[in-house]
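Field guide to reading this record: the first block holds the primary sequence, the second block holds the structure written as discrete tokens, and the final block holds curator observations. Each block starts with its own label. This record concerns ABC transporter ATP-binding protein, catalogued under organism Scleromatobacter humisilvae.

BLOCK 1 — SEQUENCE
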Amino acid sequence: MNSDTFIQIDHVTFGYDASRTILNDVSMQFARGKVTAILGGSGCGKTTLLRLIGGVYRPQKGRVMFDGQEVDTRNRDQLYAIRRRLGMLFQFGALFTDLSVYENVAFPLREHMDLSESMIRDIVLMKLNAVGLRGAAQLRIAEVSGGMARRIALARAVALDPEVIMYDEPFAGLDPISMGVTANLIRRLNDTTGATSLMVSHDVQECFAIADYAYLMMPGGIVVAQGKPEELNESTDPQVRQFIRGEPDGPIKFHYPAPPFAEALGLPQ
Ligand SMILES: Nc1ncnc2c1ncn2[C@@H]1O[C@H](COP(=O)(O)OP(=O)(O)OP(=O)(O)O)[C@@H](O)[C@H]1O
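BLOCK 2 — STRUCTURE
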């Protein structure tokens, strides 16, 4: 393993049950201090991969290495220590709607640390300042826009200064301006904190604008391409080109495998 590798996925095969393989011999490396994107269409196992890194599930084959240690789902102390080093931005933010912006960011600090109110206040305002929302601290979550909510979730994800930040679909449901703002923030937070960032997404261009490296996954949980964004942009592989350009026609099929329509309708064929 390269010493610059913070997280390594080493020939991982995983299924939630024996009937279906979700990840199929997946190998990836996430470099320290870099932003890596995991791209792929819906259902190809991207979120599952994040769950394996967080030790929620164990691979049936292969292993997940976190800073040189194999993630062992049976070792509770190790898992707690790893999760303490991980910040996670969930799909759609998952903020506490009954708490203020300030209290949402303060929440992990109150849960995991024993800090005075004035320390909490300093950290919360610093994190909110980093996402440009210090002035919104006292608003209720119901009063903020979708783009602001994502930034608040980002401030909360970095409240404990994690070494690794995992973003699950950070651009989902955002308008183009909020997408750009969020992308720049992810890059900036990565660079100012020195964290290692992983983003799972199907928004190719947003990811390419800020990622140092990207993996492309396809249905069946396989990695079909990897490289720097500029390398992937120049790929001549038809699957890669179709995904990157969002073209409807190509080797990636729109339809989930099904018998002929006529047969399903009971029509003569
Ligand atoms: N807890 C679970 N139990 C059983 N099957 C699951 C579970 N979670 C996800 N799956 C299945 O695993 C497959 C991969 O899901 P996953 O969420 O990892 O994909 P994804 O690439 O993140 O997709 P999306 O972008 O739509 O979230 C899907 O077919 C999903 O139905």
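BLOCK 3 — OBSERVATIONS
Residues 176-193 form the longest helix (18 residues).
The pocket of adenosine-5'-triphosphate is lined by residues 16, 22, 40, 42-48 (CB under 6 Å).
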